[in-house]
Amino acid sequence: MAKILLVDDIDALRDLHAMLLGRRGHEVLHARDGREAVNLASSWRPDVILMDLEMPVLDGLSATRILKADPALSDIPVIAFTSNSLPTDRERALEAGCDDHDTKPLDIERLTSKINRLLPMG
Hints:
Elements: E1 3-7, H1 11-23, E2 27-31, H2 34-44, E3 48-51, H3 60-69, E4 78-82, H4 87-96, E5 100-103, H5 108-118
Parallel strand pairs: 1-2, 1-3, 3-4, 4-5
């Protein structure tokens, strides 16, 4: 299964989503903000990143731009994972470099499908 970096500043959501993804066989590491996500992506090299967009320190859009500007990290798929569900929110995420967009609350089947599609063998 995949190595997933889950980025969310809300502890309860991050823990719940990590548990659900872990039950699917994924190895999950998590970060509390965009700055931590960029640092972990560099050292851990995940297969995919689930990025909340609204966080302290460094928001998800800015973190995604940093990741996509780094040639060593730019190929890691980023899925914006947010409660923002307007079409303009999706457009902003894609413009920032996200490879896909999904909304909270978590629909594990839908999210798993998106993760699998973005993996090299998906």
